[in-house]
Amino acid sequence: MGAELGKYKLAVSARSADKEVQKVAQDGGIVTSLFGFALETGIIEGAIVAASKEWAAKNQDRILMENSNFEMAEPWRPYPAIVYNKAELIAAAGTKYNISPNVSLIKEATRSFGLDKVGIVGTPCQMQAIRKLQLYPIGARDVGASIALAVGIFCMENFPYQSILQLVEDHAAMKMESVKKMEIGKGKFWVYGKRGQVVQLPLKVTHKYEQPGCHVCLDYVANLGDISTGSVGSPDGWSTVFVRSKIGDDVWAKAMAAGVFETKAIESVKPGLELVTKLANEKITKNKATVEARKTFGVGKGLRIPYI
Amino acid sequence: MSKVVEISPTTRHEGHSKLVLKVNDAGIIETGNWCSITPVRGVEKLAVGKTPEQVPKIASRVCGICPIAHTLAATEAMEASIKCEIPKDALMLRHILQLANRCHSIALHDILILPDFYIPGTETKINPFTAEEPVRTVAKRIQRLREIGQTIGQIAGGDCIHPRNTRVGGMYRNVSEQAKTKMYDLAKEGLTLAHAQAEFMIAVIRSYHKRDFVDVGGMKVALPKTLGYHDQGYLATHAFYGSSSQDECPSWDISRFKEARPWDWYMGEMTVDLEEPRYPIGGTTKVGTKVNPQMEACTGIPMYDGQPVEVGPRARLVEYKNFDMKGTQGQNIAREMEYQDCFYEMIDCLDALNTSGKVVADYIPNGDGSLGWASNEAPRGTDVHLARVKDWKVQYFSMLVPTTWNFATCSKALEGAPWQLAEVIMRGYDPCVSCATHMIVLDEDNKLVAQKLIQ
C-alpha cells in the first residue's frame, strides 16, 4: 500500500535511558520519558495521561470527575489526568488497555488548570480528534494553540471497560484487583497477576470484545501524532518511534541531545518496520472491509462512515 | 413645526435598534424614541419547567456581550429562590469572572465610540483601524485588554463568552495554583494598560465635549454643553458586583419595580418627513416612510418608583462614589473611571481565593417555590433576574436587563440635543440591545398581558 505508516521524518527503535522509567514502563518508556523531558525543559507545562484509579483518588483536583466515589470506581479503569512532573508521570505509567477519554480533559487543561502548553498522549483516533479540534476550534477557543506536543500510540483496537473485565475475570480467571500488568504481544493477550501467575489468551478470543467503532479505523500508527510510538517492530523493552511533525522533530532532537533515550537504527532490529507495515496493512485491509460493508447498512443510504 | 426623522438601524453597538425623533425647525429633538427592534426570543418562556441548572445556561445565550452577568444573575436568582449559600471561594471566582467580563466589555465599547471623537487638538476624527499613531497604539492596547479580560474569564469561568463553570450551589471546579498565578499576572498587566487606556479616553472625551461644533457626515452641528442630560435618577445595586434577595440588606426592592407596555410609552404612528442623505452610514430613512415605535419596539419599559432610571457605570459611581458629572460626557468618563477598579478588585479577589478551597455548597435545596432575585452589575448596568424554583424545577423566570432600563431613560436624555448627535448620546449607554428584547409584561395582578408580540 505504501501509506500505511503515514508521513514521518524519522523511524527509530528506542528506549528510555532512565532505569526508573524502564522499571515501570510498558515497553520502552517512550511516552513517560518524552513527557518527563518536555515537562522539565518547559516545552509543556502539563501533560494529559491515563492515570490509575489509585492515583486519581489521591489527586482528585487533577481529573475531570467531581464528587467521585472512588471506593466504587473499578480497578484498571483509566482516568484522564493532568500531571506536572516526572514523578507523577511515573506514578501514572503503563498501558491500561481500555478507553481513556484523554481528549475530554484538553479544554479544561487550558481553563481552570491555566496551562498554555499542554502535552497529550492518545490513540490514533484521539490524535485525529485533537487535529480536528485544532482545525475547527468550535467550542474550543484557544485550545488548539495550547497543544504543544501530541504523542500518538500504536493501536490495533481498543476495549471498553466491560470487555476487559470479562477477559480478565472470566477468561483469565483472575480478579481485576490482583492484576499487575496487561499486555498484547506475540499474538496473545497477556495478563500478569500480582502473585506471579501469568495467563495468556489467544487474540482470537479477544476479538469479539473489541469496541465496534474501532473496526472502521484506518490508522494503526497514529499518523497525526507529532511523535508516535508503540512496541511493535522493536525487541522486548524497546519501542518503535516515528517522528512525524516539525514540533515532534524539534522535541525529539532536544531529547536525544539531552541523552533521554537510547536508540538503535530501525533497520538493525528485529522484527523491524516490516512487522509494523504488515500489521498496519492487516488493520487497514480488515477495517476497509467493514467500511465497505457498512455502506450497505441501513435503509437506502448506508451508515455514515466516520473516517476520511 | 416639528418634523420626524428616523435613524434606522443605529450603528456601532450590539443588537438592532432605531431612533425615531421628533425635531423642531432648528433640528433640536423635542421627543426622542429609542427602541429595540431585535426580535423577541422568549427566554423566560423557555425557562419554565427546566431545571435550575439549565436556565442560567439558556439565559446567558440571550447575548454574547455580557453573558457572564446573565449567567451569574440567573444562577444567583436560582440560589436565592432555593436559599442556597455558596462557599466563599466560589464567590471569589464569580467576582473574578464578572470583572474579567467588564474589562473586556469596556475595551470593546471604547473601540465602538472612538470614531465619534477627535484626536485632541486636531480636526481629525479617530479611525480605530488606522495604522497611524497614536491610534494604532490605542487599538493594540484595546485588543490586549480584551484578550486579558477574556483569558481571565476563560480560566475562572471555563469559557469567556458563555461561562460553563458556574453552577447552582457554587462553581463546578476551583482553579489550580498555576491558573491563579496566570490570572494574577494578567490582572497586573491589565491594570497598567487600563490606567493608560482610561487616561487616553478621558482626555479624548473631555476634548470632544469642549468643542462648540462637531462634524457629522459633513454637517457642522452645534454641540450643546448639556448633551445627554436627563433628570431620571439612577439605580445601582452594588459598587461592582451585585445583590440578591438573600442579602442581609438587599439593595434592590422588587416592590418599587413596575413595567409599562411600549404602546403606553412610545409615540404612535407617524410619517418620516425629514431626510438627510449625508448622515452616516447611508443616510436616514426616506421621507414618506411610516414609523410606529409603539408597535415596533420590542421591549417593556421598566420603572423604579414609577419612573425610568439610568443604570450603568455612572449610576454605580453616583450611588456609591458621589460622582456628579451629568450627560454623555459624564457617562463615558464614569465608564473609564471604573476601568482600573476592575483590576484592583480582581487582584483583591485573587488574593482572597484559596485554590484548594471548596467551591460547591454542601447542601443544595430543591426549592419551595419562593421568589428569589439576584442582581448583577453588568458592564452596562444592573441586570436583575427573578426566579421561582420548586422541587428542582423553574416555575417562573424573568430578566430585567440593563439596556431595557436604559431605553426609556435614554429616550428622555435625547431631548434638547441636535438630532445628528442622537447616536452619540445613545452610545454613551453602551447599549446591548439583544438581551433587552425578551418582553414579558405583567399587569397589576401579575398576569401576562403582552403576549401579542411574542406569538
Describe this structure in words.
The complex is a heterodimer of chains A (308) and B (455). Chain A is an alpha/beta fold. Chain A has 2 domains: 10-156 and 219-294, no CATH class; 159-209, Nuclear Transport Factor 2, Chain: A. Chain A is built from 10 helices and 11 strands. Chain A has helices spanning 19-24, 30-41, 53-58, 86-92, 106-110, 124-135, 161-171, 203-206, 246-257, 273-294, and strands at residues 10-16, 46-51, 79-83, 118-122, 147-153, 179-185, 188-193, 198-202, 227-230, 239-243, 261-265. In chain A, the strands form 2 sheets. An 8-stranded mixed sheet of chain A has the order 3-2-4-5-9-10-1-11. In chain A, strands 6-7-8 form a 3-stranded antiparallel sheet. In chain A, a hairpin with an 8-residue loop joins strand 9 and strand 10. In chain A, helix 2 packs antiparallel against helix 4 (86-92). The two termini of chain A are 16 Å apart. The model of chain A has no long low-confidence stretch (mean pLDDT 89). With 455 residues, chain B is α+β, with helices and mostly antiparallel strands. Chain B has a single domain (3-436), classed as Cytochrome-c3 Hydrogenase, chain B (Orthogonal Bundle), CATH 1.10.645. Chain B has helices spanning 43-47, 54-60, 67-82, 88-113, 135-157, 177-209, 293-296, 313-321, 327-352, 402-413, 422-428, 433-436; strands at 3-7, 17-23, 29-36, 166-167, 170-171, 213-216, 219-222, 242-244, 257-260, 270-271, 290-291, 301-304, 368-378, 381-390, 393-400. Chain B has a 4-stranded antiparallel sheet with strand order 8-13-14-15. A 3-stranded antiparallel sheet of chain B has the order 1-2-3. In chain B, a hairpin with a 5-residue loop joins strand 2 and strand 3. In chain B, helix 4 packs antiparallel against helix 5, helix 4 runs antiparallel to helix 9 and helix 9 packs parallel to helix 11. Chain B is globular. Chain B starts with a strand and ends in a 19-residue tail after the last helix.
